[in-house]
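In line with agreed milestones, the collection of sequences with tokenised folds has grown. A representative record is reproduced below.
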Amino acid sequence: MHPARKRRRTDRRWSLTGLKISRIRDIINSRRYAMKRNGGKGIRRTSALSSGKTVEKALEKALEELGASVDEVEIEIIDAGQKGMLNIFGSRDAQIRVTRKTSSRGTEEAVDEVMRTIMDSLDVNYRLFTKEEEDSTYINIETAGVDGLLIGRKGDTLNSLQHLVGRIVSKKLGGYQRLTLDVGGYLSNRREILKQKALKAAERAKKTGRDVPLEPMKAAERRIVHLALAEIEGVTTYTMGNGDLRKVFVSTGRGDQGQGRPRNR
């Protein structure tokens, strides 16, 4: 096969892939627009403020509004209400706030629905694995050979994908959802690598008495380093630089660079 012709075919293949990726947002937005035209069906609210003659009546209205059962919600009684004289004078309706209980299962289902739209447009098979972390839901996606495409250079594509999916899922579930979206365990492995680098930098700073800089990192990665060294006695961290890829410095407080430097994330 002629080399030039082969290059043209390769370029065409990647341009088609790029076109598919660029259409993902349009595909998702068109589905959300269709849901709005369908009366909002598919967008689930997470809380409702309700009032009624009694707490029971207010609760009944709130459950109907949310489409939930009493076992699926938390109930806050704002005002228990008052019957008043002859049930007329001085009476006051009860007022409550009902909030749907959150679970990693609900978040996983919402992420699965969004990812199905994306993966169908790319014609890719995938699986989701979920676990509950301290302050978020961790969801790992495994694909049939296109993990690198979804991760991108230094995780840039994955970062954009997490932002997009997170916004859509939060909108769908009716409130902000803290989730970590991973592909092929990339973020999990990256987290461990950063922790090890941070620990080695701390040992080096202790031995030399000089501040040790780490590679430029995004905000989320800098936070991992700060937390990894937060409990190590005699070691502090601070951030210097401009833009998204700022550097974390590991210091024992003895180096010239560390004098008076605050710890930033």
Q: What stands out?
A: The longest strand covers residues 73-79. Residues 1-21, 31-43, 256-260 have pLDDT under 50 and may be disordered.
